[in-house]
From TrEMBL:
Top enzyme category: hydrolase
Low complexity: bias regions: 201-211
Annotated active site: H394 (proton donor)
Signal peptide: none
Molecular function terms, GO-annotated: 3',5'-cyclic-AMP phosphodiesterase activity; metal ion binding
Subunit annotation: Interacts with RAF1. The interaction promotes RAF1 activity.
Ranges for domain PAS: 49-119
Organism, scientific name: Phaethon lepturus
Name recorded for this polypeptide: Phosphodiesterase
Top-rank taxon: Eukaryota
Residues engaged in binding Zn(2+) 2: D435
Biological-process GO terms, alphabetical: cAMP catabolic process; cellular response to epidermal growth factor stimulus; positive regulation of ERK1 and ERK2 cascade; regulation of DNA-templated transcription; signal transduction
Length: 666
């Protein structure tokens, strides 16, 4: 203690960095080594990492700015220089307030500062001013960086430009958040921060040991399940990819997982009702099962009502003994421009029997089913008798129209290559029965009214389930009209399943699911094969077309397009169908108001409705994408031309502020 301490400056000058006084105590030596590790050694590792980190910063496509705790600019990367128009020398060492690069809204800046000063991240939209005075919108994230002593030593600002739709433009970027985390956590022992945060033991440590072990065991069993669903596999693959991904990628994958875990994967999200009430009401009326009942009134579609059966009907006319006017009306039934309304008039609203006889004969349905023509005639008459002629739209003329469209699509070359004879039979029968006994009201109405059918089918695909079930009940209850009676059991089961699947596919709640699956499983693979130089006869294309799963998707798409093909018909037919469906919706709104039920589609009020607007919304939301996909598959230039002409017609009326089907006479 009395000895004078000599200076260590000569030692430092000689290159030494630390003096250690010899000590025989083991713990003293151990403590010294620990200090070395957590002092100089760890600092050296951090410094060694800096070169690679700054290389990453320099190459990042995100604009990055680092400031001191006093908001003095310490670093900006080249992307920041490019976006803002400044050179790095113009910014380094200056306080943020000296450079007019930020919005000077005091309350807004106070909000940001109050957040980051307590160590929290801030993220949001921000308007910045470039050197040339232009204002640009950015998505900005500001991260406080805590240094020694637990104090905030730096602020890191990461900016991404937004496009015109306020969507962040993301390129192949490197996440600065990961880099800054690396600087503060880098040591000679590598730590996986993401895995550490998901450690099951840490999440269960608060419970009892037994409880923790049980939960850990349960999680292990869940992850080893062999009955894993495809969506579970997708989620697991994404989770695994997140482990080694940069932060922006990991965050993007988090958003992907959020979307995948929702139930409505295929339904686009609409904006507010005010943006497009016509679209909102159509979606509400066609794609939901209604609101819960708000009154005690009930709409009874009686399950006890007597349906028409074969014995109660007049003996049908033979195909060879059809009146000349009806024969003439069906002359061009193989063409798309066939006029169903002319046939409706000629047959006194019984077009389905006559058109059905002709189309079924053309496709050899009796031969396939091994049934007589008289049985088929009886069946067609029973089915037609159970359509409600009092409905303005959902009557047997609509069924005949859908049957015609189905037969037309089945005659297209690509479809003929794809489907088997049993698929064609199923499609034609499904089209014939797909709306049998339709009450002229939507599923939402029936659910809201507490109808017997809604109760029977648990508010789920009420009408479609009823159409399919009743079709088989009517067919099988009397041998005179049982077109299936001579079929072999297994073939009948296959045909029955295909018919039911196609009828249920006409339910609009699954519209986007069917369309998206068709696009992703059929359109895109076919396009990829054709781009690679394969022609239409290639084995690969045949595999895509004829796999059982894809044949189901094609049949669903076929009947869906046939069911709502009105906007693709010639203009006069399109207008007539638009008037009929509007009248049916008007009648439903009238009845909802009379019974005190929720009004499912308020825009369909006969006193205020704009029919052109409703048609524009229907085409925009449901028709265009679906027929683009179907045209790409089946090649339907005439339909697409009609669709374009009809859309322009409705647009023209709407631009003139007209709400009617037709312009007023000159």
């Amino acid at each position: 203690a009395d000895r004078e301490e000599s200076s260590i400056l000569p030692l430092i000058s000689a290159g030494f960095t630390r003096r250690y006084v010899e000590n025989s105590n083991i713990m003293a030596c151990y403590n010294e080594l620990i200090q070395l590790e957590f002092g100089e050694v760890q600092a050296q590792f951090k410094l060694r990492a800096c070169n690679s980190l700054f290389t990453a910063l320099e190459k990042s496509q995100e604009a990055i700015e680092i400031t001191s705790e006093d908001h003095v600019i310490q670093y900006v990367n080249p992307a920041f220089e490019t976006v803002m128009g400044y050179q790095i020398g113009e910014l380094i060492g200056k306080e943020l307030t000296e450079v007019p690069i930020n919005e000077k809204k005091a309350d807004f800046l106070d909000t940001i500062n109050s957040c980051i000063k307590i160590g929290k991240e801030w993220q949001g939209m921000y308007y910045a001013k470039k050197k040339n005075g232009d204002s640009i919108q950015q998505n900005v994230k500001i991260l406080p960086v805590v240094g020694q002593g637990g104090k905030i030593r730096h602020y890191v600002s990461i900016s991404r430009l937004c496009n015109d739709n306020n969507k962040v433009m993301i390129g192949p970027q490197i996440g600065i958040a990961v880099l800054m985390d690396s600087v503060s956590h880098f040591s000679c022992r590598h730590k996986d921060r993401r895995k550490g945060s998901l450690d099951v033991r840490s999440t269960t440590s608060r419970g009892s040991d037994g409880s923790s072990q049980r939960r850990h065991s349960s999680m292990a069993r869940i992850h080893s399940m062999t009955i894993e669903a495809p969506i579970t596999k997708v989620i697991n693959i994404i989770n695994a990819a997140q482990e080694s991904s940069p932060m922006p990628v990991a965050e993007a994958l988090d958003r992907v997982l959020e979307i995948l875990r929702t139930t409505e994967l295929y339904s686009p999200q609409l904006g507010t009702k005010d943006e497009d009430p016509h679209t909102s009401d159509l979606v509400g009326g066609l794609m939901t099962d209604g609101l819960r009942r708000l009154s005690g009134n009930e709409y009874i579609l009686s399950a006890k009502q007597t349906h028409q059966v074969a014995g109660s009907l007049i003996s049908p006319i033979s195909l060879n003994d059809i009146p000349p006017r009806i024969t003439q009306a069906m002359e061009n039934e193989e063409h798309w421009d066939f006029d169903i309304f002319e046939l409706e008039a000629a047959t006194h609203k019984r077009p389905l029997v006559y058109l059905g006889l002709k189309i079924f004969a053309r496709f050899g349905i009796c031969e396939f089913l091994n049934c007589s023509e008289s049985t088929l005639r009886s069946w067609l008459q029973v089915i037609e008798a159970n359509y409600h002629s009092s409905n303005s739209y959902h009557n047997s003329t609509h069924s005949a129209d859908v049957l015609h469209a189905t037969a037309y699509f089945l005659s297209k070359e690509r479809v003929k290559q794809t489907l088997d004879p049993i698929d064609e039979v199923a499609a034609l029968i499904a089209a014939t029965v797909h709306d049998v006994d339709h009450p002229g009201r939507t599923n939402s109405f029936l659910c809201n009214a507490g109808s017997e059918l809604a109760i029977l089918y648990n508010d789920t695909a009420v009408l479609e389930s009823h159409h399919a079930a009743l079709a088989f009940q009517l067919t099988t209850r009397d041998d005179k009209c049982n077109i299936f009676k001579n079929m072999e059991r297994n073939e009948y089961r296959t045909l029955r399943q295909a018919i039911i699947d196609m009828v249920l596919a006409t339910e609009m709640t699954k519209h986007f699911e069917h369309v998206n699956k068709f696009v992703n499983s059929i359109n895109k693979p076919l396009a990829a094969l054709e781009e690679n130089g394969n022609n239409g006869d290639g084995e690969s294309i045949k595999t895509v077309l004829t796999s059982p799963e894809n044949r189901i998707l094609i049949k669903r798409m076929l009947i869906k397009c046939a069911d709502i093909s009105n906007p693709c018909r010639p203009i006069e037919q399109c207008i007539e169908w638009a008037g009929r469906i509007s009248e049916e919706y008007f009648a439903q709104t009238d009845e909802e108001k009379r019974q005190g039920l929720p009004v499912v589609m308020p825009v369909f009020d006969r006193n205020t409705c704009s029919i052109p607007k409703s048609q524009i919304s229907f085409i925009d939301y449901f028709i265009t994408d679906m027929f683009d996909a179907w045209d790409a598959f089946a090649d339907l230039p005439n339909l697409m031309q009609h669709l374009d002409n009809n859309f322009k017609y409705w647009k023209g009326l709407d631009e003139r502020k007209l709400r009617s089907l037709r312009p007023p006479p000159e």
